[in-house]
C-alpha cells in the first residue's frame, strides 16, 4: 500500500533526524535517496555528517533528479531533500520557474506511482522572509508550490519546530 509522508520545517529544525528515525521504525532496511549536488567543501562536510549518522542498515542511493529510475516497491524510502532536488531542476532549466515546477511534479508523480512508503524531507524556505534577490524569490516560489503539491498528495504532513514534530495533516 502506498503512503506519502512529508516532513517540513526550517533550517536545523530536526527534519532529517526525525525522518531517519521514522524510516527505521517502519523498516529494518530503509532506502535513503540523497538528492544533493556537492557544490563546495562546506556542503560536502554537511553531507558527510548526514552519512555518518546513518548505519549499515540503510540502502543508500544518490540521485539528483530522476527518482523514478529506481524501482523501490514495498520499501520504505526517505528522500532528503525536496529543496535540493528542486534546486537541480531549477538550475538545469535556466531558472524557469514554471518549467522546473512542471518537471518536478511530473517526476514526483512517476516516482510515487510505486507501492511504497515515501518520506519526503523539505524546507519551508519562505518562512524566513522574502529575499531581495530576484533569483531567490523565483526559487522560493517554486519550492513553496512544490511543497504544496506534495502536501496535497501526502497522507501525513509533519512540521518540525525546534526538534519537535507537529502533526499538520493525518
What brief labels describe this structure?
170 residues, alpha/beta, Rossmann fold, seven-stranded mixed beta sheet, 5 helices, 42% helix, globular
What would you say about this model in short?
The protein is an alpha/beta fold and 170 residues long. It is 42% helix and 22% strand.
The number of distinct helices, counting runs of at least 4 residues, comes to 5
CATH top level assignment: Alpha Beta
Contiguous low-pLDDT stretches (5 residues minimum) are none
Q: Could you say what the CATH architecture is?
A: 3-Layer(aba) Sandwich
Helix/strand class: alpha/beta
Q: In total, how many domains does the architecture comprise?
A: 1
Describe, in plain words, how this protein is organized in 3D.
The protein has 170 residues and is α/β, with parallel strands linked by helices. It has helices at 15-26, 41-53, 82-92, 97-111, 134-153; strands at 3-9, 31-34, 59-62, 76-80, 117-121, 156-161, 164-169. It has one domain: 3-Layer(aba) Sandwich (Rossmann fold), CATH 3.40.50. A seven-stranded mixed β-sheet has the order 3-2-4-5-1-6-7, sandwiched between helices. The longest helix has 20 residues, at 134-153. The chain starts with a strand and ends with a strand.
Amino acid at each position: 500500500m502506498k503512503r506519502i509522508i512529508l516532513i517540513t520545517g526550517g533550517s536545523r529544525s530536526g527534519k532529517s533526524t526525525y525522518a531517519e528515525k521514522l524510516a527505521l521504525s517502519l523498516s529494518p532496511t530503509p532506502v535513503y535517496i540523497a538528492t544533493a549536488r556537492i557544490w563546495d567543501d562546506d556542503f560536502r562536510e554537511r553531507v558527510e555528517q548526514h552519512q555518518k549518522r546513518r548505519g549499515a542498515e540503510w540502502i543508500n542511493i544518490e540521485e539528483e533528479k530522476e527518482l523514478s529510475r529506481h524501482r523501490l516497491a514495498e520499501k520504505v524510502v526517505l528522500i532528503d531533500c525536496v529543496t535540493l532536488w528542486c534546486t537541480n531542476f531549477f538550475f538545469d532549466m535556466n531558472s524557469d520557474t514554471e518549467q522546473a515546477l512542471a518537471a518536478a511534479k511530473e517526476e514526483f508523480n512517476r516516482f510515487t506511482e510505486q507501492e511504497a512508503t515515501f518520506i519526503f524531507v523539505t524546507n519551508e524556505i519562505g518562512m524566513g522572509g522574502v529575499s531581495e534577490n530576484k533569483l531567490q524569490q523565483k526559487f522560493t516560489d517554486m519550492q513553496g508550490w512544490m511543497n504544496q503539491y506534495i502536501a496535497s498528495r501526502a497522507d501525513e504532513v509533519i512540521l518540525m519546530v525546534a526538534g519537535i514534530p507537529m502533526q499538520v495533516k493525518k
